[in-house]
Write a structure and sequence with these properties.
heterodimer; A: 2 strands; 66% helix; B: mainly alpha; Four Helix Bundle (Hemerythrin (Met), subunit A); 8 helices; 72% helix
């Protein structure tokens, strides 16, 4: 049913057609830009509100408790209560803080988090800015958020915040390399940096399976590495050392209160959605339906279904994995992820040059399995830390 | 000169001036980051998409962070007591102006400025990639080799400190093995992972 699929695109064109006689061309262009931007500014924060309650419910379930259950039916109006609370709380700025930088940090973080959505295709013909270098734009804008995190940690003049900011920046800089290199494999195969074109490259079918890159050896390895790196980029558990409640209280946003704190929270989730969206676009076929028979469900619905599935995966990881130590974090990035990602590039090249057939599966798959066997577990043991023994516990 | 170019140019100049004059080193570093972002928008305004986005990725994302790290790790970030201007600023300004005048005069009279502008080449990202992989593959490889050499050199410089410390850590682990439970008293050193 093409109508439902293109309903938002047609709605925009209809609205612009209604206004055509009334407004001049330059105003019409402005309205067109606004009509593309405003839905993003509404939909993703709404998704943020839904995800927070789902996360708290899910974590509660994992930890054998109820989670929020007082506001509204089954506690599902909790985000509204949280929002009102954040708005009416007093905004405290410590006396020693650098006022301007303190104010700018959360603003820059939210702005960069929103900006990356400009190139993300959330449905057929539904992308705000079809850039030639969309992927590059995504990473360039995402990289600017590192500096905002540092600004937040530095401006407060609090040693915990500074420690958290240093940890965060070290972690984000380290994990940016595997994040970018794992998507380079996709660029090598498709030969384009434009995200809509990458989605189009995955729209065919291979037997009954869709031609998504996650169903190839290099794509599968790339997807796993991408998701681990995305988790670390978003500073989420098990990579939440920068926030480490038990060590440095809350890290770089320790002295933020009221709505500024809510902005940090919003930016964290927005960048997580964006990076999940990029993972979907690169490896999970973007807005394509998995089977030809399911194409009656509109493309944007598929995108959001995949996004929510990935978010549930993130909630599950957060609830079940313990936090990494600093040396484990860096070892994982530099000794495992980066070599693995580089080998994945070779595997993608093998896949490309072997030509269609069984051999390409064998060569690139075998290369990745052997690489994982050699790079895997043994080197994460730190020899100088003996087995932990307990005196008062078993 | 369009309005958008004027705004971007004013932003770059203001940020660069702030980077020179601000007392606090971290403030200067942040002002430099704004200047980098302004330059990137100037490139984007000229239609050089790849250069503009790479400018943000490399300079705002990495170089600014590097500067900030260097400032924080080398010395205290406190503001200097004296004015940031040197006492002989008058002579400095005079020399700078005369050098600028000389250079401007030379450039203005050179044959390069009288040449007709070549037709603007279309520099799409795809074309840049094609050229880098075919026509300019050797320079690309040489730069890659240079960067690898620099990386190895940095690792070697960073490793030199490590040898006495690793002995201590070995001693510590031996002690742990003999005294058993005391290992819970030694938190793992966090310096292991830093580059």
């Amino acid at each position: 049913m093409p109508d439902l699929d293109q309903i938002f695109v047609n709605l925009k064109h209809w609205l612009l057609g209604q206004l055509e006689g009334i407004l001049s061309a330059s105003w019409l262009e402005l309205v067109s830009i606004l009509l593309s931007l405003v839905p993003i500014l509404i939909v993703f924060p709404t998704l943020f509100a839904i995800m927070t309650i789902m996360e708290r419910k899910g974590l509660g379930r994992i930890q054998n408790r109820y989670g929020p259950n007082r506001v509204g039916p089954f506690g599902f109006l909790q985000p509204a209560a949280d929002g009102i609370k954040a708005l009416i709380k007093e905004d405290l700025v410590p006396r020693a803080a650098d006022k301007v930088v303190h104010l700018l940090a959360p603003v820059i973080l939210v702005v960069t988090a929103f900006t990356v959505y400009a190139v993300l295709p959330i449905g057929r013909n539904m992308v705000v800015l079809d850039l030639d270098a969309g992927l590059l734009f995504f990473f360039a804008v995402g990289a600017a958020s590192d500096l905002a995190v540092f600004m937040a940690g530095w401006a407060i003049r609090n040693k915990y915040a500074l420690l958290g900011a240093m940890r965060a920046v070290a972690q984000m800089v380290s994990y940016e390399i595997p994040l970018i290199l794992s998507s380079v494999a996709v660029v090598m195969i498709t030969g384009t940096l434009s995200l809509p074109e990458i989605v189009m490259a995955q729209s065919t079918h291979f037997g009954f399976l869709p031609d998504w890159f996650v169903f190839t050896p290099w794509g599968f390895a790339g997807f796993l590495l991408f998701m681990i790196a995305a988790n670390a980029e978003a500073n989420r558990s098990p990579f939440d050392l920068p926030e480490g409640e038990s060590e440095i209280i809350a890290g770089y946003f320790i002295e933020y209160s009221g709505f500024k704190f809510a902005l940090f929270f919003l930016a964290e989730y927005l960048s997580l959605f964006a990076i999940c969206g990029l993972g979907i676009t690169l490896f999970l076929g973007g807005w394509n339906a998995p089977f030809a028979g399911l194409e009656f469900i509109p493309s944007w619905a598929w995108f959001f279904l995949k996004l929510i599935t990935l978010m549930c995966l993130f909630i599950w990881t957060r609830g079940t994995l313990p936090r990494l130590r600093q040396d484990q974090l860096m070892n994982l990035a530099w000794k495992f992820m980066i070599p693995m990602v580089l080998i994945n590039l070779v595997a993608a090249a093998l896949w490309h040059f072997t030509g269609p057939g069984f051999m390409r599966w064998l060569t690139s798959g075998a290369l990745l399995i052997v690489a994982h066997l050699f790079l895997g577990n043994p080197q994460f043991e730190r020899k100088d830390i003996g087995k932990r023994t307990y005196r008062f516990a078993e | 000169m369009t309005l958008s170019f004027a705004i971007i140019a004013a932003l770059i100049i203001a940020a660069a001036t702030a980077a020179m004059t601000l007392r606090n080193l971290v403030h200067s570093a942040l002002a430099v980051a704004i200047a980098f972002a302004g330059l990137a928008s100037a490139y984007l305004q000229l239609g050089a998409q790849f250069v503009g986005l790479t400018q943000i990725l490399v300079y705002v994302g990495a170089v600014a962070i590097l500067i900030v790290f260097a400032v924080l790790l080398t010395r205290g970030g406190e503001a200097p007591e004296k004015s940031v201007f040197s006492a002989s600023w008058f002579w400095g300004a005079a020399i700078a102006t005369s050098v600028f005048a000389l250079l401007a005069c030379a450039i203005n009279h050179s044959f390069a400025s009288k040449r007709a502008l070549p037709p603007q080449p279309s520099a799409t990202v795809e074309q840049i990639g094609q050229d880098l992989m075919t026509k300019f593959v050797l320079p690309l490889e040489v730069i890659g080799l240079l960067l690898t050499a620099a990386l190895i050199g940095a690792v070697i410089i960073a490793m030199r400190d490590e040898s006495p410390k690793s002995k201590i850590e070995d001693g510590g682990s031996k002690m742990d093995k003999t005294s058993g439970p005391s290992s819970i008293l030694h938190p793992p050193s966090s310096s292991g992972g830093h580059q």
